[in-house]
């Protein structure tokens, strides 16, 4: 492809994306395809000869679009948001166009130094301690795995790097039963192992039960185990619960346990001074993850891991073969030592574009509005005699269920309600369990979301619920 063709299709694709953004509300939110549909439509081998861009773009519309779920749709209330934005998309184009691999300072000094400065901006804007330093990873799962690896090595005095550390007593790790599955996965992958992961129950407030945590650590110590890693979750995935960071921090300090904070979703709300209650006690944390790719308009993927003691952290990842030595080694930041991968996309560019193009004030107002819309809808649902608010609102998340008078199997009714809503295509909601009851999660956080969208979604929920009651 020469630059003339590139320019032509570049313009065409930007027009295509802009049209998609303008028309997104006309798409059914969820894909309407069945398993295997695309596989059946695609050739089984790559073409030997070049195809035209026209043919490729036609197949984009014909084959790919019907199989997509529209995460940027204003009425996407499923999971957690993963919002993109035009500045982030433009920065992604530049990132791809430059094709820079920022594995270390020398391979693109600007990529390294922009990442450092943008993460200082973000840290300060979130009200995090000034001794936190950040690094961009692909996902929170990777960030938490890196924290677990560093925790393991610090606890083993870096013996694991030498001989695996198997001769040392088993290490143990802790998180609440509401912690994201990536926490357990990190514990498995870092070698601590499933048998040594303690999933601590939560108390009435949805946070990790501190008495059980203390007793579990004590029991582990009595068995000769070494407590190494603990995760406090701020804004748990299913129901948005918050662990008591301050109290967990005190316990971790007493036992020299690496405390990692998972604020993958809720971390963006720290832009709002009135939400900083959740990080009381953050001084005791060794690391924290938050994902700008969830709620901060920075196209997936962009997860930020903040660490307090960079030396203790990077020691777990540093390896220096001859071919990676540079004149500046040891005097500059080489982000290859801050994680698993050597090669690194230039992700800081999109965060820089987003922070500059919107400014902190507008981002704050967006999150504040999401929290306000969630509170208003939760109150409306709570006031309805046929619906029950089960959880929240916690930031911009709440959970509810339909329970009209005379309903006999409320769980089945809500299963039917959720699947009918999601087949309908007007809005997209996902599920949760609250005290064993089937609940419907409503997570607010889309770009361009208005009170009218919320009202339209609520009307659709009530209509579908009413139809179900009449036909059941
Ligand atoms: C609290 C929490 N932690 C971690 C994750 C995993 O995030 P990622 O997809 O970036 O690995 C999620 C995903 O929703 C989450 O809600």
From TrEMBL:
What is an example of a GO molecular function annotated in this UniProt entry?
carboxy-lyase activity
Residues where N6-(pyridoxal phosphate)lysine is found: 294
One Gene Ontology cellular component term attached to this UniProt record is: cytoplasm
* A GO BP annotation: amino acid metabolic process
The answer to whether the entry has keyword Transcription is no
Matching Pfam families, A to Z? Pyridoxal_deC
User: Any idea which UniProt keywords this protein has?
Assistant: Decarboxylase, Lyase, Pyridoxal phosphate
Q: Which lineage?
A: Bacteria, Pseudomonadati, Pseudomonadota, Alphaproteobacteria, Emcibacterales
Question: Can you name this protein?
Answer: Pyridoxal-dependent decarboxylase
Q: Highest taxon of the source?
A: Bacteria
Belongs to which family? Answer: Belongs to the group II decarboxylase family.
Secretion signal span = none
State if Lyase is listed as a keyword: yes
Provide the cofactor list for this protein: pyridoxal 5'-phosphate
InterPro entries to which the protein is assigned, alphabetical: Aromatic_deC, PyrdxlP-dep_de-COase, PyrdxlP-dep_Trfase, PyrdxlP-dep_Trfase_major, PyrdxlP-dep_Trfase_small, Pyridoxal-P_BS
Q: List the Gene3D superfamilies hit by this protein, alphabetically.
A: Aspartate Aminotransferase, domain 1, dopa decarboxylase, N-terminal domain, Type I PLP-dependent aspartate aminotransferase-like (Major domain)
């Amino acid at each position: 492809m020469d630059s003339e063709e590139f320019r032509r299709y570049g313009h065409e694709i930007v027009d295509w994306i802009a049209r998609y953004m303008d028309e997104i509300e006309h798409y059914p939110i969820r894909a309407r395809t069945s398993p295997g549909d695309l596989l059946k439509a695609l050739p089984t081998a790559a073409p030997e000869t070049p195809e035209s861009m026209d043919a490729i773009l036609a197949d984009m519309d014909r084959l790919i679009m019907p199989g997509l779920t529209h995460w940027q749709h204003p009425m996407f209330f499923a999971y957690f948001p993963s919002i993109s934005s035009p500045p982030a998309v433009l920065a992604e184009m530049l990132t791809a166009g430059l094709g820079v691999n920022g594995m270390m300072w020398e391979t693109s000094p600007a990529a390294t130094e922009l990442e450092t400065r943008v993460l200082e901006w973000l840290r300060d804007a979130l009200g995090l301690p000034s001794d936190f330093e950040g690094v961009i990873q692909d996902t929170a799962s990777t960030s938490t795995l890196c924290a677990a690896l560093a925790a393991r090595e610090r606890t083993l005095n870096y013996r694991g790097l030498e001989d695996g550390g198997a001769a040392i007593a088993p290490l143990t790790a802790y998180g609440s039963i509401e912690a994201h599955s990536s926490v357990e996965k990190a514990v498995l992958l870092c070698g601590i192992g499933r048998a040594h992961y303690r999933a601590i129950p939560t108390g009435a407030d949805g946070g990790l039960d501190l008495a059980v945590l203390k007793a579990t650590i004590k029991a582990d110590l009595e068995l000769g185990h070494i407590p190494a890693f603990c995760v406090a979750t701020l804004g748990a995935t299913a129901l948005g619960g918050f662990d008591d960071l301050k109290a967990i921090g005190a316990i971790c300090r007493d036992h020299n346990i690496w405390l990692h904070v998972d604020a993958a979703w809720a971390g963006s709300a720290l832009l709002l001074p009135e939400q900083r209650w959740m990080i009381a006690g953050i001084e005791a944390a060794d690391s924290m993850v938050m994902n700008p790719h969830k709620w901060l308009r920075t196209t997936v993927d962009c997860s930020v891991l903040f660490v307090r003691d960079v030396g203790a952290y990077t020691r777990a990842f540093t390896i220096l073969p001859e071919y990676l030595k540079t004149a500046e080694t040891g005097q500059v930041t080489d982000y290859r030592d801050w994680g698993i991968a050597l090669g690194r996309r230039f992700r800081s560019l999109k965060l820089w574009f987003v922070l500059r193009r919107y400014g902190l004030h507008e981002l704050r107002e967006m999150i504040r509005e999401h929290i306000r819309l969630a509170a208003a809808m939760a109150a409306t649902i709570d006031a309805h005699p046929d619906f029950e608010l089960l959880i929240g609102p916690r930031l911009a998340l709440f959970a509810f269920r339909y329970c009209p008078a005379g309903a006999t199997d409320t769980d089945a009714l809500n299963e039917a309600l959720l699947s009918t809503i999601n087949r309908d295509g007007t809005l997209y909601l996902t599920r949760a369990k609250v005290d064993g009851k089937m609940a419907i999660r409503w997570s607010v956080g889309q770009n361009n979301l208005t009170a009218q969208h919320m009202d339209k979604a609520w009307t659709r929920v009530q209509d579908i619920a009413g139809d179900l009651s009449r036909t059941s």
